[in-house]
Amino acid sequence: MKIKKFFLICAFLFACTPGSLEKQDRLYVEMLDVGQGLSFLIKGKNCNSLYDTGTPDSGIDTMLQNRGIKSLCSVVLSHKHNDHTGGMSVLIQMVKNGELRINRVLFESDAAEEPYLELLQNAGVKIQEISRNDTLADFLPWTTRILYTTGSITMRLSDSENSFLFTGDLEAEQEKNILELEPLLSITALQVGHHGSKTSSSWDFLAQIQPKMAFISVGKYNSYGHPHPETLTKLNIILQDTTQVFRTDRDGSVTVEWLYKIGMWK
Ligand SMILES: [Zn+2]
Q: For residue 241, what are the CA distances in angstroms to 125, 237, 244?
């Protein structure tokens, strides 16, 4: 299936020979199965980054070790809730043990007083508050832009053909603000806000951004009832292909391979 899709895309590209594809820039975006929490690993040619870290018990250390990750250019913390930033304590310990190098940790203003930021600085990691429209050069030639920071850092990774939107626990009210700021926003792959809660993923937002793939990070049998059936119904209507909704509680960790300006697929 993967190969078929791949060659379908190639058929439209003059310069698409096996040799040129081997050299093609590629990214791997992996939704890590951290249970009831969130963490994405983005692996590029020169840089690996995390968007959120799960809870302290979600096994982020083992996951990084199993994948051979010894260095992170950046860790983006969407907001200060434990299911998103709790894993920082584990990462700090890894830095102290010499098992991991982190260049910088990016956070939003509400998290400025969090104790782990001081621990990071003491361990020699750069910390940096980020603002709307900041860009990260970590995945060039891909563009990484911060669309929004209030409540939950929302980050868009894109080439001219496709894009991946990381939203953390973005709520409907904040989605509305983003649409006002970014009226032409469209997205190929969406990290569904707040683990599929019904307080996120408003109709207006989904109808505007028109995602083709949806990623829900959610713990098995979680007590919050995430993802909410209403959210799943909306996603099934907007995506029109239920096989493109991925959930950590059913699918475990899920990786998207992304060839620059060619396509992305799971
Ligand atoms: Zn959360």
A: 42, 8, 6
